[in-house]
């Protein structure tokens, strides 16, 4: 699935992945901490069944809206469900979209952008106009309008997030393709008779990979935030299955009962998004120094 | 200048049509049957057929498309399936609350953000600068609805300083009700505008004419405001436009948090209740606002920067 994106980035020139990683983390203690935070949350998501003290869906009418105690570290919600267990399982539903949506959007957006940029013509004008229009919309509004048509659920969220992110990738891919197209090596490839699909895959795509990868890492955080917002609005992960967004939604309707679900879930979102932002910034500085501040 | 502005206005017409097309595509052509979504999984085939009949959903697609465009342009928005009130009336009641929230929040954001950015830029790499950096990092990461919920819990629920829900009636009570929701959005705006002001101002302060101004002995305040901030205004205006858009989309979640009437709250409850005509109208109005704000940004450019006028 990621072959087009990752092979050129890691196989480019003589700088192996290790040097890149070193450049990202060396001398940046904050980035290292951020990476550790993400590692911890990744482990929590993977090993959720082993870590969660209770079943996240198990209700107990004996302890409703309990405050934090030794038994339930973050208390219970209005159905007597253990908040900590719901947060732990919720990490799965929240993080998975951050991994899938940017990759899918990158694939679709890059394809559109490269084709538009390389061939030009009517298709290019059409794509450009559509991109401009879609980019004018805040992602959340776009996502709300599309989910109004599709409804919630796993695959629909994936579709919504992908559509929301495609225009950004398409614009960057198109702009980069336009500048790469001017390079002498493309002209040389055309002159010696390399077929167009090969030129695009072997010469264009590897050379526009850096900004695309940067965008992908920057949007992991956006995808997680957007899923949280959609679930909060009742259009994302469907209850009773927990995601950090719908835990806050449930918590708000029970705000007189216990504030702990809101505090816990929001803290988790903030921490994860902050960490991904920091890492995205670091990767941007290394891969694409031109666009960093 | 007037000619440029008129040109931009004319240019917005195809955009509006394209936006309407987009909403139409999203609601009608994407997989997902509006009748099924509106009536739910329990609907019988007869009910579905009747609904399609009433909403004109079994006409050919191109016919539906022209009827849709015409209805939206003539503000013939239909009636709510839930309350049977005209959709236009629902919108008219709720829209002012959203506009109020957006304006107050953006105003607060500018009021905090720009001075904070100037403070950071003039104290580069010192305490205020680092403070603004940390603040904006958190501001970028924290979801606005979470921040809103925290403010609600602390200031409305526990301290009782502010109302928990509603939108207020007369001016004073409306401002009282809008304060916490606006503050929530403004804090996110402040993070963004502060950072942006800092970057743009630092860039301008590195220019030659600023050095010249300092060399001829202009006072520091004059250098910062007359030579610096004024020339940093263009990127800040773009940022302001973007943050106006972000505030508009953020208002959806914030209206849910504070249980406040408004366009976002109307749209989201309509989606939950599958009130198809309201969903359609809400989506179109939001889309119009997006086009309108982008138009405002363009016009602001023309007014602020004389160089754009000449082209």
Describe the structure.
The complex is a heterodimer of chains A (293) and B (311). Chain A has 12 helices and no strands. Chain A has 293 residues and is mainly alpha-helical. In chain A, helix 10 (196-232) packs antiparallel against helix 12 (260-287). The longest helix of chain A has 37 residues, at 83-119. Chain B is mainly alpha-helical and 311 residues long. Chain B is 79% helix and 0% strand. Chain B contains 14 helices and no strands. Chain B has helices at residues 2-29, 34-39, 45-55, 61-73, 87-122, 127-141, 144-158, 171-205, 208-215, 220-229, 233-257, 263-273, 276-304, 306-310. The longest helix of chain B has 36 residues, at 87-122. At the A-B interface, helix 6, helix 7, helix 10, helix 11 and helix 12 of A face helix 1, helix 6, helix 7, helix 11 and helix 12 of B.
Helix and strand sequence of chain A = HHHHHHHHHHHH
- Please outline the major beta sheet of chain A: none
Number of helices of chain A: 12
Instruction: Return the structural class of chain A.
Output: mainly alpha
**CATH fold descriptor of the largest domain in chain B:** MetI-like fold
């Amino acid at each position: 699935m990621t072959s087009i994106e990752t092979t050129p980035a890691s196989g480019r020139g003589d700088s192996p992945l290790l040097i890149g990683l070193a450049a990202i983390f060396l001398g940046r203690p904050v980035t290292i901490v951020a990476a550790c935070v993400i590692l911890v949350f990744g482990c929590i998501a993977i090993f959720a069944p082993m870590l969660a003290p209770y079943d996240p869906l198990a209700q107990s009418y004996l302890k409703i809206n309990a405050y934090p105690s030794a038994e339930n570290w973050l208390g219970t919600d209005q159905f007597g469900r253990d908040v900590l267990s719901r947060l732990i399982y919720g990490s799965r539903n929240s993080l998975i979209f951050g991994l899938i949506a940017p990759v899918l959007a990158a694939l679709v957006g890059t394809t559109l952008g490269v084709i538009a940029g390389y061939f030009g013509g009517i298709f290019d004008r059409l794509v450009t106009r559509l991109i401009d229009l879609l980019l004018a919309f805040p992602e959340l509004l776009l996502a709300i309008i599309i989910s109004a048509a599709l409804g919630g659920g796993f695959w629909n969220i994936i579709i919504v997030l992908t559509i929301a992110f495609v225009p950004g990738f398409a614009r960057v891919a198109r702009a980069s393709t336009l500048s790469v197209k001017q390079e002498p090596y493309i002209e040389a490839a055309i002159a010696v008779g390399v077929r167009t699909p090969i030129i695009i895959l072997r010469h264009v795509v590897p050379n526009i990979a850096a900004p695309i990868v940067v965008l992908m890492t920057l949007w992991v955080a956006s995808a997680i935030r957007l899923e949280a917002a959609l679930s909060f609005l009742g259009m994302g992960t469907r209850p009773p299955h927990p995601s950090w967004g719908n835990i806050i939604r449930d918590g708000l309707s029970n705000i007189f009962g216990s504030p702990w679900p809101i505090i816990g879930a929001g803290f988790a979102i903030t921490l994860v998004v902050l960490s991904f932002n920091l890492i995205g910034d670091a990767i941007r500085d290394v891969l694409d120094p031109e666009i960093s501040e | 200048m007037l000619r440029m502005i008129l040109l931009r206005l004319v240019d917005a017409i195809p955009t509006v049509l394209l936006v309407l097309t987009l909403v139409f595509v999203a609601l009608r052509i994407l997989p997902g049957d509006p009748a099924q979504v509106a009536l739910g999984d329990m609907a019988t085939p007869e009910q579905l057929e009747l609904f399609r009949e009433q909403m004109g959903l079994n006409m050919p697609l191109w016919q539906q498309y022209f009827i849709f465009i015409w209805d939206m342009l003539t503000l013939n928005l239909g009636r709510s399936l839930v309350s049977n009130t005209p959709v236009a009336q629902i919108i008219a009641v709720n829209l002012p609350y959203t506009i109020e929230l957006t304006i107050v929040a953006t105003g607060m954001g500018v009021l905090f953000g720009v001075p904070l950015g100037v403070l950071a830029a003039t104290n580069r790499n010192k305490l205020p600068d680092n403070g603004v950096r940390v603040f904006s990092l958190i501001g970028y990461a924290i979801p606005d609805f979470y921040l809103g919920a925290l403010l609600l819990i602390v200031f409305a629920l526990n301290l009782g300083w502010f109302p928990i829900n509603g939108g207020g009636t007369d001016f004073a009570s409306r401002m009282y009700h809008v304060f916490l929701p606006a503050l929530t959005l403004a804090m996110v705006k402040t993070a963004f505008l502060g950072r942006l002001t800092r970057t743009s101002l630092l860039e301008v302060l590195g220019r030659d004419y600023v050095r010249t101004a300092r060399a001829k002995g202009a006072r520091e305040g004059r250098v910062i405001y007359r030579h610096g901030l004024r020339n940093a205004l263009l990127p800040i205006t773009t940022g302001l436009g973007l943050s106006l858009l972000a505030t508009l989309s953020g208002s959806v979640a914030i209206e849910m948090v504070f249980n406040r009437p408004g366009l976002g709250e109307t749209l989201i409850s309509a989606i939950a209740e599958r009130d198809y005509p309201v969903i359609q109208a809400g989506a179109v109005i939001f889309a119009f606002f997006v086009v309108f704000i982008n138009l405002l940004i363009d016009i602001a450019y023309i007014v602020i920067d004389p160089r754009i006028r000449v082209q």
